[in-house]
Amino acid sequence: MNDLPPILVVDDEPRSVEVMARVLREEFDVHVANGAEAALAVLNAHWIQAIFCDQRMPGMTGVKLLADVRQRWPDIVRIIVTGYTDPDDMIEAINEAGIYQYITKPWHPDQLLLAARNATQLFAMQREHDRLSLELRLARPAVEKRLVRERALVRETYHFEALVRTQGSPLNETCHQAAKAATFDIPVLIQGETGTGKELLARAIHYASQRASGPFLAVNCGAIPDTLLESELFGHKKGSFTGAHANRRGLLEEADGGTLLLDEIGDISPAFQVKLLRFLQEGEIRAVGANESRRADVRILSATHRDLREEVRAGRFREDLYFRLAAMALTMPPLRKRPGDVRVLADHLLDTLSARHGRRVHGFTAEAMTCLMDYDWPGNVRELQNEVLRMLVLTEGDLLGADLLSPGVLHRVAGARASGHADGEAMESPTLSTPESGPLQERIERIEAQILMETIVRCRWNKSRAAKELGLSRVGLRAKLERYGIAPDAGRETIQ
């Protein structure tokens, strides 16, 4: 079977057909016809990619023939060969028959071959375009269904219930207020300590709003210098500063129709506060180095670990900017004020992390969970996540035990218990702490109890190992544990 691209040469002069066919047969499967009727017969019998047709032929001109071909076989690339160069004739041919190219006589063999190569390549490109267009039309319903599913999954992932908490959690009131604010297209300020989930709350607000189908973008204002932050938000023109090698759209323009979260807004400089205030007042952005302004329809959410009212009173943050950002202000409570949420959060994080890393475990031991709930979590949910991940990495069993907790957590939990703060009241230091008041003997005993608690937990209640580490006999260790009331959780088997 001949794999060369098939083309047709049409001319009423046999000598011209023979010469053209001889040149083109070097690279093509050439069919010939000595007139319009013969050409139509060839086209009915064979698959043709391109036609070279003489213009002046008896009965039917080349243009008339190619116009007919255009109606019946529109994919075939049509080339007219003529000895006449009247521009009016060429315009008529191009308009009436959709001519791809015309070649004037006398032609050069290389010119003929080049025209044939380009024509067959164009034919192949047209066919590929048609194939891809058909595939796209057939796939569009499936793609649209997939996009709908993905949007639903995103909304399910970033909704207010995704902020894990118990029924009596202090976070419930914050989420209730945020859900109400989401339905109003107003700027919202979210305040709270680092790691409390401010960005998660911002995403939940976005996906509960009328802008849910638009983009959600976030930028950490505190991590970027003023000059770069202006370019990041407003964009820049090519050559406006060193390194600006091309025009760049800013995040405010990218977020048009959606939401932009300005994280750590309390860290921006007074000079940049003025630039941001202008956008919030006018709704216009001007790229760095540009002369014209553009409008952007963006909902602004902002977040900060600072107390912005105090920053306003101290003169470090503009009052007018504060009120532009805080049409409604929300506060994310720290984890130490949500002790009831620690258990469900730890279980949720363990499920998520174990699935992500392919390490399945059954949960926490009772003692490990008690330690997690007794700790004050100064790093909030982010610290809890890191602690659960550490325990997951180190475990060799199906349960995460207290011995897997990091030294800092064990120190503070042991210190709190030894000081009588079993409810998880915050300690000032993550290391072994010295009581600040009380008789000397009482202070010494509290330190001793803290050391005993930390060591016995780390040794997984193996009294022989703990006694050896502390330089005590097993009898002496047991006596001290009984004296301070240090005992394992019910149901734990201890190693003597």
Automatic annotation (TrEMBL):
Domain Sigma-54 factor interaction residues, every copy: 164-393
Residue numbers carrying 4-aspartylphosphate: 54
CDD domains assigned: AAA
Residue span(s) of domain Response regulatory: 6-120
Protein's UniProt keywords contain Cytoplasm: no
Spans annotated as Disordered: 420-440
Keywords: Activator, ATP-binding, DNA-binding, Nucleotide-binding, Phosphoprotein, Transcription, Transcription regulation, Two-component regulatory system
Superkingdom classification of source: Bacteria
InterPro entries according to UniProt: AAA+_ATPase (IPR003593), AAA_lid_NorR (IPR058031), CheY-like_superfamily (IPR011006), Homeodomain-like_sf (IPR009057), HTH_Fis (IPR002197), P-loop_NTPase (IPR027417), Sig_transdc_resp-reg_receiver (IPR001789), Sigma_54_int (IPR002078)
GO terms classed as biological process: phosphorelay signal transduction system; regulation of DNA-templated transcription
SUPFAM superfamilies, per database record: CheY-like, Homeodomain-like, P-loop containing nucleoside triphosphate hydrolases
One matching Pfam family: HTH_8
PROSITE patterns reported for this sequence: RESPONSE_REGULATORY, SIGMA54_INTERACT_1, SIGMA54_INTERACT_2, SIGMA54_INTERACT_3, SIGMA54_INTERACT_4
Listed GO MF terms: ATP binding; sequence-specific DNA binding
UniProt protein name: Two component, sigma54 specific, transcriptional regulator, Fis family
Source species of the chain: Beijerinckia indica subsp. indica (strain ATCC 9039 / DSM 1715 / NCIMB 8712)
Lineage: Bacteria, Pseudomonadati, Pseudomonadota, Alphaproteobacteria, Hyphomicrobiales
